[in-house]
Amino acid sequence: MRLQLGVVKLGLAISAVALIALWPRAQHGAAMIAAQDDPAKLSELQIADALRQDRGIIARQTEAALSAGDPDLARSFVELATAHQVALPDDLVRRVDDAVRSEQAPTQVASRFATGLVTGQGDDLAALSGTLAGDLFVFGDVRDVIREGKHLATGEAADHLILGLAAAGIAVTAATYVSIGAAAPARAGLTLVKDARKVGRISSGLVTWAGRSAREIVDAPALRRAVADASLLRPARTVEAVKAAVRTDKAGGLMRFAKDVGKIGEKAGTRGAFDALKVAENPKDVARAARLATAKGGQTRAIIKLLGRGALLLATGAWNFASWIFSALLMLFSVVTSLKAGTERLTQRWLDRRRRKATKRALAAKMVPQPAVGVASAASEA
């Protein structure tokens, strides 16, 4: 019995120590799994965990962003630090503010706007504004359709994604004017996706999906005919011909995708949208990124920089979190089982002790001498 009780105590001690060690991880895993459909909460938990392991990570990333000439990303890290109550050196914050002010100088903004308007490429708000202005006046989309269409007609390598997005953009631009801006988010989103494609800031998964979607909404023979007759000198005629080649009834998925991209650009900036398009692999990821940007605003770029696609969904870590929870539950079960076994052994020991005492008392009572019956009778007669 003593040996059995010792084994139970040892098992209880081991299980209790393991449970104490596993419990924080199990709690974190349960919180992560519960937040897997909420990108904002999921990112908060992951950033908090990263800061517990390395409090200086935000300061280092801010320095790296400044060194890379990206004040917008540096400012995003400053906002993230403020949200998580991480103190950054005053000198670092001041340098970020100076870099942001320099980037937003009127001459710089005007130059980037003009570049975006003329070239149709941009990686910041000013350049995107120029690109979007060109697309809203149809100039940008017509330019892209003519350029890629000519490549297609001459047998050169044409970017079918940009061609399809530009064609869809021409149709959406008309809807934007008719609806007095109601389609503007989709219009901005299409421009962002085009720009991301031009500068190589879109993932291969999204390129495949968006390219397939763009081809589905475009009547290829009609578009080829429109491109053959297209000219920047006759923009109205080109626009009508391209619009006729777009199947707007099949554009629902692409428009939802474009609206989500436009929302990211509105809340997190052009570069924030590019960062999201770089890590997202499908429209569901982009929709999650839109929810993240809506909740986190300027922090979005820093979050995506630190967490990558993990900012959008719970991927490879799900099994680890589940295993921590299972291990903690297993240790809890082991503790309860050990307590049960220990209680049973102690109860059995106590019962055995009582039984032995009762047996000893019974034996002692039998050994007490009793007076003889005859002697007792004689004494009573006398």
TrEMBL record:
The protein's superkingdom reads Bacteria
Could you list this entry's UniProt keywords, alphabetically sorted. Membrane, Transmembrane, Transmembrane helix
Write out the transmembrane intervals: 321-339
Protein known as: Uncharacterized protein
